[in-house]
Amino acid sequence: MTAHPVLRLSGITKRFGTTLANDAISIDLAPGEVLALLGENGAGKTTLMSILFGHYTPDAGTVEVAGAQLPPGKPRAAIRAGVGMVHQHFSLAANLTVLDNVMTGTESLWQLKSSTSKARRELLSIAERFGLKVNPDTRVGDLSVGEQQRVEILKALYNDAKILILDEPTAVLTNIEAETLFATLRVMAQNGLSLIFISHKLNEVMAAADRVVVLRGGKVVAERLAAATSRAELAELMVGRRVARPVREAATSGPILLEAINLDVGRRLSGINFAVRAGETLGIIGVSGNGQTALGHLVSGLVQHSGGELRLFDHAVNQTSVRALIEAGIGRIPEDRNAEGAIGEMAIWENAVLERIWEFSRHGLVDRRAARQFAAQIIEGFDVRGGTPDSRTRLLSGGNMQKLILGRNLQSRPRILIAAQPTRGLDEGAIAAVHTRILEARRAGTGVLLISEDLDEVVSLADRIQAIVKGRLSPPVPAEQADARMLGLMMAGDWPQDGTLAHAS
Amino acid sequence: MRLERRAHRPLVLVLLAPVIAIVTALAISGVLIAIAGAPVLEAYRLIITGAFGTRLGFTETLTRATPLMLTGLAAAVAFRARVWNIGAEGQFYLGAIAVAAVAATVFSGWPPYLLIPSSLMVGAIAGMVTLLVPLGLRLRFGVDEVVTSLLINFVVVLFVSMMIEGPLKDPLAFGWPQSIPVGADAMLPKLIDRTRLHIGLLIAIVVAVLVYFLQSRTVFGMQSRAAGLSPTAATFAGVPLAKTLIKVACLSGGLAGLAGAIEVTGVKGYVTTDLSPGYGYSGIIVAMLANLHPIGVIAAALFTAAMFVGADSMGRALGIPSYIADVTVSLSLLTMLVSIFFTQYRIRR
Q1: For a tag site, which of A130, A231, A407, B134 has the least CB within 10 Å?
Q2: Does A28 lie in the same domain as A139?
Q3: pLDDT surpasses 70 at B7
Q4: Is A366 close to B220, i.e. CB distance below 8 A?
Q5: What is the CATH classification number for the domain harbouring A35?
Q6: What's the CATH architecture for B38-319?
Q7: CB pairs under 8 A between A and B
C-alpha cells in the first residue's frame, strides 16, 4: 500500500470511571484498504470509533485525516474531513423518503430553495458507481433492513466520505444480505475509499478484510494481514485464550417428545412436519423471515395452530398456553432476548421467575426469598457475570443475559428445549458457553429444537436438519449426510414436495 | 457535553431530588412574587404559616391533601403499567354522583357501619366503570386511552350537571344546582371537631400503604409492571396482558372514584359542579412528583395541598393573586421531572 495513510490514530486513550476503554491505541489506514477491527463485546472497538468520529473526546492521543489533525469531540469536523459512519442502529427517519434522508443535514436551514433534483442526480450517480441499487422516492420505513443499511452507506457517500466506518454491519443482516454488503465494500475499496468495519465475527473478517487489527481489553493485541492468518489464530487472539466450540457426540435418541403433523399456523406456516426426540437435537435452518418466528412462537405457546395436529408427549394438544407448556417441561429461549427474553428495567431475580411465577408465589404473594435464591443459583451455576439477583437486568451484557435466560430454563431440567437463535449477536466466548449448555441438556435426555440462521451453529449442534422456506419445512436429513451444497439447496426450497418424506429418517 | 445513563441510581440523590426540585421551584416563583411587588421572604413565611401555622390552615391542608392522595395513587398505579389514565377527574365526579344517588335513597335507613363502606364501594365501582370504557376501546380497537379518558371527563361533568339540575336536584336548596344530600348517617366521622378534617385522610394513607404492598409484593404488582415496561416480554413470559391491564384499570379508576366518594361524604355532603378544583388533573402532577411511588404520593399530595392553601392565604394577606400557587406547583413539577431525570443520567464532557 502507499506510504501516506489517509487516517492515523495515535496513542488514543479513553477512560470511563475506573475502566480503561482504550489504552494508547495507534492505527494507520491506507487508501483503498479494508481494515477489520476485531474484538469481543467490550473490547473498546465502538469507543475507539466514537472518538474517531468525534462523539467522544479522548483523554490522550490524536486523530489525523490525510495528515491534518481533527479537533477532538467535533462530529461535524469529522464529516467535513470525509469520515462517514454507519451505525449499528440506523439513524434514519422512517417516515421520510430515501432522498430526504440522504439530504438531511446537507442543506442550510436558511436556504429557501431546496435543490432536490440536483441531489437526486447526484444520489443516483453514486448509487450507480457503487452498485447500491435504491429507489430515491421509497419511504425508508418500507425498506428491508439490508436496504436501510444501503441508505445509510449512501448517506455517508453523499457527504463525500473518503473513510467509511461500519459498526457491526452484519449484525442485522441475513447471510445473503451480508455477502452483498461485502461485495459492495470491495467495490468501494476499488474506487479508492478506505473502510473500517467493526466485528466480532471471524468468518466475515476473514472474508471481507485486507488487514485485521485485534483489540482486547482496550489494547491492540495483534495486527495481521487477512491472507496470512487463520480463523483459529484470530479467535485465540481475540479471546486471549484458546476457545473451541464444543463438539457434538453421537446421539442416543429416545422416544418422540414433540411432533407436528401437517400443521398450519394461519398463513405463516403450512403443512409442516417435524419430530423432536429425547436426547436429540433437531435443527431448523433457513434465511431470516421464512417463518422461524411463527414456528418459535407456536412451540413457545404464544400462537395456536390453525390446522393439523400438534402432539406433546404422545398426546394431541389443541390449545397451548405459556404456562401449560412450561409446566409440561418445555424450556424456551426466545429469538429476541431484548424484546422478549428479559425486561431490562426489572431486577435479575424478577426476570428469572416471571415466566414461572406460580412456582414462586402463594396466594398471590411473591416469595421473594425463594425467587432470589433461584436467581442466585442461576448466576452461580451458569456463570452469569455483572450482576446480583437485585441488580437491573439491563446492566448485563448480551452474553450474560442469554446465560440468565438459558439458566432459568435449564435449572429445572426441561424435557424439551426450544432454542430460537440462541447465539445471535453473542461473542465467541459466550457462544461456546451456550453451545456447551445445549449439548449438556441433550446428553441428559432433553429433546432440543434449535431454530437458527447460523448455518455453522446448526451443523455443529444438530443431529437432524430441516430447512424452513416460505412457511414450509423440508424433510429432515441426518447431519452426517448434510454438506454445504445440500443445505444450500434445502434453504432455496429445493426438495421433493412430498410431506411423507418428513418421517423417512 | 453529553448525557450518560447512570449504572445505579444513588439513594442519596433519589431522596435529595425532590428537595432540590421544590427549592428551585420556590426560588423561581420568588421572582414572580417580587414582580408582583410583594416582599419575597415575607411571602414565603406567609405560605408556610398559612399552610401549617394555624390549626385551621393545617387541617385545611390535610383535608385538601386527602383527595389528592387518592387521585395521585390512581394516576401512579395506572402510569406504572403504562395505562395513561388522564380521566381521574371524570372518575372522581362519577364516583361522587353515584354516592349521592344511592346513599339517601337505596341505602336509606342502613346503619352507618354498613352505609359508609357500601357508599364508598359504590363510588369506587363507578370510577372503575368510567375507566374501563376507554381501556376496553384500547384493547378492542387500539384507541389511544389518553384521548378517550380525557374526553370522558367532559362527558361526565355534563352528566353530573344534568343529574343535579334534574333527577337528583335537591328540592330544598332554593334552586341552587346541587344534589340531594347523602344524609348525616353517610357522612364520614370528623378527625378533629370543628374542622373540615375527616377520617378520609386515614383511609387515603392506609390505601397508599396497601397499594405499595400490592405493587411490590404481589404477583399482580410484578405482572402489571412487566406489562407496562415491555408488553412483548410480558407476553412471552405468559403474563395475561389484557387481564392485567383490566385489573390495573379497575384499581386506578376505583381509586379516583373513591376520592370522589370520600370528598362527598367527608366534606360537603352533596355534589355540586365545583366539588373538585381539578383534583383529578392535580393527581397526575402528584403522581409525577412522587415518581409514581405510592408512599411518595402521600408526601407529594401534602406538598401540593400545602402550596394551594398557603398561597391562598398569602395572596389574601399581601394582596397578590393566589395563582402564584398554581405557578409554583407547576414549576415544581417541571423541576421535579428534571431532577428525576438527573438521578438516572449524568452529564459528561
Answers
A1: A231
A2: yes
A3: no
A4: no
A5: 3.40.50.300
A6: Orthogonal Bundle (1.10)
A7: 64
Q: What is the pLDDT of residues A341-350, one digit of tens each?
A: 899 889 999 9
Torsion (CA) A291, A297, A300, A305 in degrees, nearest 10? -90
| Cβ contact, residue pair B226, A343, below 8 Å | yes
Cβ <8 Å between A368 and B217? yes
Compare A146 and B310 and report the one with higher pLDDT: B310
Best of A47, A337, A340, A409 to substitute, by most chain B Cβ atoms within 10 angstroms, is A340
Structural domain span for residue A486: 256-338+413-503
How far is A351 from A336, CA to CA, in rounded Å? 15
Contacts of A299 (CB under 8 A, 6+ apart): A258, A325, A330, A332, A418, A449
pLDDT tens-digit series, residues B85-126: 999 999 999 999 999 999 888 888 888 888 899 999 999 999
* In a domain? residue A457: yes
- A10 by Cβ neighbours in 10 Å (0-12 / 13-18 / 19+) ranks as middle
Res B64 pLDDT > 90:
yes
Which grid cell is A428?
465467541
Each as own residue / partner, the long-range contacts of residues A406-409 (CB below 8 Å, 24 or more positions apart, any chain) are A406/A333, A406/A382, A406/A434, A406/A437, A407/A352, A407/A378, A407/A379, A407/A381, A407/A382, A408/A351, A408/A352, A408/A353, A408/A355, A408/A356, A408/A374, A408/A378, A409/A331, A409/A332, A409/A333
A221 within domain boundaries: yes
Residues in a beta bridge with B345: B5
Tell whether the torsion through CA atoms of B266, B269, B270 and B275 is positive or negative. negative
Choose, out of B3, B222, B243, the residue to mutate when testing the contact with A (most A CBs < 10 Å): B222
Identify the pLDDT of residue A1.
44
A361: β partners: A366
Query: What's residue A504's pLDDT?
Result: 39
CA distance A281 to A285: 13
On the 0-12 / 13-18 / 19+ scale of CB atoms within 10 A, A95 is exposed
Instruction: Tell me whether residue A257 is exposed, middle or buried, using C-beta atoms within 10 angstroms of its C-beta: 0 to 12, 13 to 18, 19 or more.
Output: buried
Query: Does residue A369 form part of some domain?
Result: no
The β-bridge relationship of strands A34-38 and A194-199 is parallel
Name the residue among B7, B218, B238 with its Cβ closest to that of A355.
B238
CB B223 within 8 A of CB B82: no
What tens digit of pLDDT does each residue of A340-388 get?
A: 889 988 999 999 999 899 889 888 898 989 999 999 999 988 888 878 8
ipTM: 0.81
Task: Check: pTM over 0.95? Answer yes or no.
Answer: no
Smallest Cα distance from B196 to chain A, Å: 38
